[in-house]
TrEMBL record, chains A, B:
NCBIfam families: corr_regen_AcsV. CDD domains: fer2 (cd00207). Residues 2-91 form the 2Fe-2S ferredoxin-type domain. This is Corrinoid activation/regeneration protein AcsV. InterPro entries: 2Fe-2S_ferredoxin-like_sf (IPR036010), 2Fe-2S_ferredoxin-type (IPR001041), ATPase_NBD (IPR043129), Beta-grasp_dom_sf (IPR012675), Corrinoid_activation_enz (IPR052911), Raco-like_middle (IPR041414), Raco-like_middle_sf (IPR042259), RACo_C (IPR027980). Gene3D superfamilies: 3.10.20.30, 3.10.20.880, Domain of unknown function (DUF4445).
Amino acid sequence: MIKVKFMPQNIEVVCKYKDNLLEVARKANIFIDAPCNGNVSCGKCKVKIINGRVDTKKTTHITDEEFDSGYVLACNSKVIEDIQVEVPSKLSSSMNKMKIEDSSSDVYKKLLENCKQLISKNHMEFKSYVRKNYVTIELPNLDDNISDFDRIKRHLRNTFGYEKVTCKIETIRKIPNILREGNFNVTITHIPKAGNTTNIVNIESGDTTDKFYGVALDIGTTSVAACIVDLYKGKIVAKASSGNAQIKYGADVINRIIYSTKKDGLEKLNKAIVHETINPILESMYNELGIDKNDITALVAGGNTTMTHLLLNVYPDYLRMEPYIPAFSKSPYIQAKELEIEINSDAYIYITPCVASYVGGDITAGVLSSGIWSSDENVLFIDLGTNGEIVFGNKDYLMTCACSAGPAFEGGEISCGMRASSGAIEKIRIDKDTLNPTLGIISNDKPQGICGSGIIDLIAEMLVNNIIDRRGKINENINSNRIRFDENEIGEYVLAFKEDYNIERDITITEVDIDSFIRAKGAVYSGIITLVESLGMDFDMIDKVLIAGGIGSSLNIEKSILIGMLPDVDKNKYSYIGNSSLMGCYLALTSEDARCKLEECSDSMTYVELSVYPSYMDEFISACFLPHTDIEKFPSVKASLGC
Amino acid sequence: MIKVKFMPQNIEVVCKYKDNLLEVARKANIFIDAPCNGNVSCGKCKVKIINGRVDTKKTTHITDEEFDSGYVLACNSKVIEDIQVEVPSKLSSSMNKMKIEDSSSDVYKKLLENCKQLISKNHMEFKSYVRKNYVTIELPNLDDNISDFDRIKRHLRNTFGYEKVTCKIETIRKIPNILREGNFNVTITHIPKAGNTTNIVNIESGDTTDKFYGVALDIGTTSVAACIVDLYKGKIVAKASSGNAQIKYGADVINRIIYSTKKDGLEKLNKAIVHETINPILESMYNELGIDKNDITALVAGGNTTMTHLLLNVYPDYLRMEPYIPAFSKSPYIQAKELEIEINSDAYIYITPCVASYVGGDITAGVLSSGIWSSDENVLFIDLGTNGEIVFGNKDYLMTCACSAGPAFEGGEISCGMRASSGAIEKIRIDKDTLNPTLGIISNDKPQGICGSGIIDLIAEMLVNNIIDRRGKINENINSNRIRFDENEIGEYVLAFKEDYNIERDITITEVDIDSFIRAKGAVYSGIITLVESLGMDFDMIDKVLIAGGIGSSLNIEKSILIGMLPDVDKNKYSYIGNSSLMGCYLALTSEDARCKLEECSDSMTYVELSVYPSYMDEFISACFLPHTDIEKFPSVKASLGC
């Protein structure tokens, strides 16, 4: 056996001769970002060998200088002797950092206000799918000696009108002692169903109705966000987020699905989301609030179809193979203990319904909170997270499609990309004379990389300043120390020199990155146009455009249009609605009416499979240009570029 | 630590100084019968110390001779040094012996014939609550790419008309691969519910409809009986029974309930019924038939209220405390895996409903198979197992009560009592001149003890031959070697001398036994009369009397009337209907119509709590006489006794 020690974690593990270094790190629970899941294509899993040697090859992702000082790609290295490995701090921490967020911030207040208006405008009620009722049951005597459970049923029928009351045997097991401990004063947690039926999920002695919390949970491919809601007062009391720990098995859903087909792959992915992501997020909030997990009696989770399959431990491989079939679209309520999610183990979890393999529960939740279903106007809803999903509709119809944009909008598969968190460059302005950039960095931290909105800014600025042409190629005739070409003549623009910021390496964007991003934005634009035109409509008929998702609130609409990602319609029609999936889960959690509306929306959404539209591929190719091969489609850009 | 070795099992265990020997045996899984659950009152747990000494006291249950040769009561002995203990073979084997029964016997044929007539007469159908359907699902394609589960739901709606189809997440997990393994030809096991709904409980690839078995299970306090039914052909294919392994924790329900309140008591009782009784019975039948447990997809179990609580691991202590409240009367369907019963782990188990603390699911099942609910005549139904339960009614009403008769009818709490199995004396005739008995022994085996029907015969014969008087006291003036008195002047009659049969000890009946039995029969008689008179009716209005239960088919009705256990009505009105509980479970298993009828019967049964009837105690005291203090109530007996 060979010993591998990881620094600065100071964790030593043993492995076999020629074991893959990335796999060894995963087994040791060392987080190394590997968006391409070990295909030697993204270059993100760069580590430094500080003692010993590995069997490796130099790749284009590693400079000569780096290679000489010990840098290798973990995925491309085999362990052949005892080694010590340094994992760059950026890799080991930035993606997975836990963040307790301020739930009283302005963005949140506005989103919550919108939700409240939506509920009241549609005559709906804030009342969760889970109910907690304190009841005083009639004491038994010899003349009235029906069973404990029958007595509870009778009380619920007489008091609340439930004709049928069900519960699992494990609840029945609790009843006799709980009833008598509280002298027949008990709190009953139950889930009402159609037809005057309710299902008791828990019984406690005494009055515990003041401890009545629920969790809304958005499970993104890259990031996971959650909030705890006081269902008694109807208030968000905590909010937190972190990276999705599955990222070590691949940055996008396709790589995760492939990983799930490997031995124990599905179990590892499930463990990564439940035990390494969701439970730590929940626990951090419990600590923050000083509440007990047993007081959480409801949870609504939304995620894309792959995330939903992985959360429920359902084999997802048929999602990626034509004809792209999910195992399920609607899941039954599931007990927390079945998923090992750390809330009250008897609580039932509601998973927001999916529409198709690539339009998931995050989108149906987003449709719910965005209120498209109650709008008279035609609304275009675009979720720009990992991949892009599009919904177009109003109160009478809802059309949806997915475009395989990949993880570029959250910084994935971009050499210096990262998600929109502390240290991410989110805004860029390039001086037309010096070609030097001015950077807007999240938290005004040292720059660590570029997030989605930063890349849009950067590409737009490079285009406007002629650093790149409309194909995304760097102008070789510019004389600037920020522009350089490697041995393969692949150009890059330096956003931040390491010396200027005292960081480990220069932050750059390469022609390869730009090409990746152009394909991503092309997928979105061609998706939008195909969806709208499939209805025989055109962009003039769009009344409103809502942008949601991980791309971040600093998304510059004007520049997004300039690079041809978004349709060239009046900028005032656009608004950014943040994490609409989380807000949708919040609504489904706090309002049973809203939850039913969500089910209704998902039933009525018509999924358009882009790959069967013959025009889609042509549209895509035309859109892989800045902004488009047909500049007439972008009149405002035509003017500003002076084409 | 002290070593205790049990022979002939040759099992050695260690225990602490002064540990109770009965508890040590239980921990070692050595079966020692202890009907009184270690109260030093029944004298059944007699063992022989063959090496070493114990801290014990002589009791009335042990003769001087026995005491000198090392016999002690295990419950009354503390371990103080290393010992070797001989467990008499009768104790260790007779109660718990597994018996594979001939399901083609005449008794069974008749019972099954009755069931079939009942079903057809009431226009019901033989169709189980569980269905297995082989279906060919439409293959998916890009134009029809709904999820696998939605596809199955659509097929079931189009083919069978189910508007709503539910299933658990664990079934969804199976769907994607099972569907594709069978090229979308699958067998779906499901449980239809009201309102065009069905619940899928299993999915298998290919056609498995020919392997479709169910189990009917009667859980008695003393004995457990089961049969396997081929639900495809509608035929009983195996039948087996054995003692209830809980008996080591007490012979009757009261002692078991008391045991359940001890540390780990409930878990031990649950383990005894599931793992030490039901699963071995099932496995013996699987071996006999050569079928796999996974082919058993339905199970219906009936037992008294205490047995039902213990089976489901529900704390039963409030059953025995006024006002005698069960935790539940109707249980939800429960998955086999939750109860750890060795059938297909996904199969759902139906538990027959209870009516009150002492009228359980065995009685409602008995009511179902006896057909009282469809009878125009007034039927008296008496279940004589451990305890006695009585139902009186016809198609318009059903009244029921329970009498605390204890385990005497199955041989419990009688010094030489045993259940009606091989070696039990079931028929007795005493020669009026010699006072020698002629014994009818089950299987013509060596006599090992007396069962319920034997005790009735014996007491009746002793009464007719003036060996006992009408109080049950032995006539001191008879000169016979079969009649003897101990130092406390307690008389006994010897049924079988050990020398005559080469057995370990004489088989006798003592005045204490007779007194126990008189109280048991008095409880039954006073229960019957109180129930009938509570309706303002009298015995003349009884059209039919059905006797069911463990007392056995050799019950002599004439003698049962003679000792005052059963009402003195025309003998032709009586019939013995065997294990009506098992037959009721068979019906509920094989016919969903019958199962619904069972629910209906249990809802409509009116429970009469005898203890609130002021007349009941007087009736009981009057009935604790042979046949009764008021001989006028037994005109036929008056004639034959010549009173």
